[in-house]
Each structure stands twice: as C-alpha cells, then as structure tokens.
Design a protein that fits this description.
Blueprint: E1 3-10, H1 15-23, H2 27-35, E2 39-45, E3 50-56, H3 60-68, H4 71-80, E4 84-85, H5 92-95, H6 105-113
Antiparallel strand pairs: 1-3, 1-4, 2-3
GO molecular function: racemase and epimerase activity, acting on carbohydrates and derivatives
Organism: Micromonospora deserti
Protein name: L-rhamnose mutarotase
C-alpha cells in the first residue's frame, strides 16, 4: 500500500489552537476520511509551524477525490483555512503535495530476503 507524506505550514502564532482543534476532530470528518480510504493518517507539528502529514492509501488521488465528495470536508477546510500559510488560494487538502520517499527500511530489508513489505 502506498505511503504518502506531505508538508504544510501552520501559522506559528496559532499552534496551540491548531493542536486543540485536532484533539476534537468532528466524528463526521473522521468517518469521511476512513470511508475515503485514508489509513494510518497522522499529523506531526513542529514548533515553527511545519506540519508533516503521513498516511497510507491504495490510491491517493482517488482518496482525495472521495473526500471532495463529502460535504463535511468543505466545512472542515473552511474552518481550518485561516491556520495555514502559503496556500496560494488553495484549501489545505488541495495544497498537499506528496514528497518522494527516498528510503524505507522495511522495503530494503524485505528486498534482501525476497519478501514483500
């Protein structure tokens, strides 16, 4: 299953509020993510506002498109938009640009034994 990692920039002046919002994500949003194929989804936040997201999904483009079909996503993106910097007139969910994975320990160990990770 493909692993996706992306970064976004949260306004450093709003880190506490951003963290608090993610302690109580709407149940409808959680359900939409799960139904859309987002698995093992985590967000990591550095003290300067660098946000790193990680998830696994069978097809990232399809998972993103599925989220676009959920009304709750539009409401969540509107609520969260003011927390982000440098979105260039996109919502955060559309500004996600997956990073290239250059190393995966499990994949390399598996290749030595002929297994699949």
């Amino acid at each position: 299953m493909p692993r996706i990692c992306f970064t976004l920039q949260v306004d450093p002046a709003r880190l506490d509020e951003y963290r608090a919002r993610h302690e109580r994500v709407w149940p409808e949003m959680l359900a939409a993510l799960a139904e859309s194929g987002w698995r093992d989804y985590s967000l990591f936040l550095r003290e300067d506002g660098l946000l790193v997201g990680f998830l696994t999904t069978d097809d990232f483009a399809a998972a993103q498109a599925a989220m676009q079909a959920h009304d709750v996503n539009a409401r969540w993106q509107a609520e969260m938009a003011s927390f982000f910097l440098n979105l260039d007139h996109e919502t955060a969910d559309r500004a996600m640009r997956p990073l290239d994975e250059v190393f995966n320990l499990e994949a390399q160990l598996a290749s030595q034994t002929g297994e699949t990770p």
